[in-house]
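hey can u run this one w/ FE2/S2 (inorganic) cluster bound, need the structure tokens asap thx
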Amino acid sequence: MFTIFVSRDEEPCRYRVKGWTGMTALEALIEVYRACAPDLGFRYSCKTGRCLSCLVRMNGRSVVSCREPLVDGALIEPLANRQIIRDLAVDDASTRRYRPQAGDGLVPPGDRR
Ligand code: FES
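ok here u go:
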């Protein structure tokens, strides 16, 4: 079992998650959503680390939650300096321009050759 704290309405909520070795932060959020918080707001799409939809802050550090191993006792918060839509879901318009096009790597448009 893992304990995580998820920022909701500016107050962290404590959840117990039945987890496994190597569980990611996104998998923990999905477990919380399925088990006890169907109204938890968060985003994800590809689950492979390419789309950046699942960016959150874990213990104060911005992470791609589908690739980040869960840490027991972690505090998961929305990205800083973004408009919060609900809970962990933020307005991600500014990260959308860095998302890869088909066949591209994660390279900002200005850095492409
Ligand atoms: S869900 Fe696409 S990068 Fe995490």
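The pocket of FE2/S2 (inorganic) cluster is lined by residues 44-47, 49-54, 64, 66 (CB under 6 Å). anyway lmk if its weird
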